[in-house]
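Researcher: Let's try something more involved. This one mixes different molecule types, so please make sure each is placed in the same coordinate frame as the others.
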Amino acid sequence: MRIAIDAMGGDHAPKLIVEGALEAANQFTDTHLILVGDEAVIKPLLAGKTYSNVSIHHAADMISAEDEPVRAVRRKKDASMVVAGRLVREGEADAMLSAGNTGALMATGLLIVGRMAGIERPALAPMLPTIDNTGVLALDLGANMDAKPEHLLQYAIMGSLYREKVHGISKPRVSLLNVGTETNKGNELVKETYHLLEAAPIHFTGNVEARDVLQRNCDVLICDGFSGNILLKAMEGTAGTIFAELKTAFGSSWLTKLAAAIMLPRLRQLKQKMDYKEHGGAPLLGLNGLVVKCHGSSDVVAVKNAVRQARLAIQNNLIASIAAEINKK
Amino acid sequence: MRIAIDAMGGDHAPKLIVEGALEAANQFTDTHLILVGDEAVIKPLLAGKTYSNVSIHHAADMISAEDEPVRAVRRKKDASMVVAGRLVREGEADAMLSAGNTGALMATGLLIVGRMAGIERPALAPMLPTIDNTGVLALDLGANMDAKPEHLLQYAIMGSLYREKVHGISKPRVSLLNVGTETNKGNELVKETYHLLEAAPIHFTGNVEARDVLQRNCDVLICDGFSGNILLKAMEGTAGTIFAELKTAFGSSWLTKLAAAIMLPRLRQLKQKMDYKEHGGAPLLGLNGLVVKCHGSSDVVAVKNAVRQARLAIQNNLIASIAAEINKK
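Model: All components are placed in one shared frame. Result:
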């Protein structure tokens, strides 16, 4: 297995990305990691050690957070992210990871790695937090703003296979994000999608309301990119606001500071539960190869976890399984 | 001013609805309140007192929470909600309030009170909580699932006038719910709407992301009914889950119970801040008269506040102002 890692993308790149890759290389000796980026910058980070399963693939340029995604991918042919995508397309790597510019990574997926035959729109599929700490795979979370029922059907098939192949869940419960649990609820998009999902080769468990997502009553949550973004950011914003208010409340007197001292470990745990960044990388599904988006703030553990995730997807033939299922239809 | 109150709708109807109406009658002596419902049930609740500005309008039937909205409104011609709507349509009341079945109230608005000329789709406009406790008027929150840009434009005009006339805000800041703050973000619906709002006779302040709604960076939030519902319920569900987890955490030992005792007043305050039920009734805008939806769990204070709100809208000619602005275009 060969996994290409964009060593130059992310808030802590290249240092923590490279360190994370080295830890992964240590742990997963059957996996070859290709660090893509500026050799002059990466080499010193290897700290003189040589790993038989780590190599550097030089890429002179890089895409920044400020770059306009599509233009950057088209013009910066030597950017680390684009080069990593090319390694996947040309079969020199089985997967790529990047913690860089999300829009640019989606463009790299579409323009460099390429869409899978039969897939109309690839989807970004992060894990949303759930209160039992296991998470739910949600797609699409922003790759495709104007989805059609057929796109949502493909998301359901891809998401279900991902949960099965990568997370080992048999018969993952697939639900549709909606404004009510009844069959006839929602806008035209979800009403039509509902019927498609009923007939699909998945374990469709009906509609889920936004207020119940945290309770994890499904394993895969299907939504269009616009509503999915509203859902994710509303959850994030509400949790962030409450924790900020709690911090102020706990800091207001010596007595409340005492209460804070008592509650601190439990509050930390709760905050962590609500943090969707804790749940590893988000695959971009529907491409001719595996592309995993790591959070911009990824550290050593995040990179190692993303490698673990990509490795499982490769071992269990995720991409081939998706292609087979999509082309059956 | 005459305000019709559906005395039979809501979790605490008729008792708390009638009590709330009596308190309002006491406070607002210039306002005549018409209690619509079963006279045999309502009369004893007046406790022998006579109010010169309270009357009972008998309605033999009622719509329950379980009734199928449109069918119930069509068939139950003597239901208290339907009769209250008829009083508005026939000019016998200037406004109506109900804490009953939301879907049925929207149907009453459309089928009994009637759409305002020039308005394509009425909108339900509750206040969402904000952390500074002032709230933001959001519309549409579920009346219209498949909105067009022109509908969103009308929501913006109506919402802006409501904030001005009822809440006394001059130049209310109107924002569009979107996935990013940049002009070119979002799906086709919001991209087109953005341009319409730029040209509209309102103070348009651009896009707002779901994560920033609680920070109250606008006075009116424009969204389609589907996304609006996702936003509201995601906020509600996240806050509810965090408070439930906090409760468990605070209850886990005698030491954490001590911390809970210290923090209780502050936690209560925070919980109240996050509760959208605290922010009064939600007007249904775009009808030939004022219809206010009170929360199902409305108590005496909620009913009194809804009367206050309706009174301000009547005094300041809300409906006529909306009609004038809509027909200018």
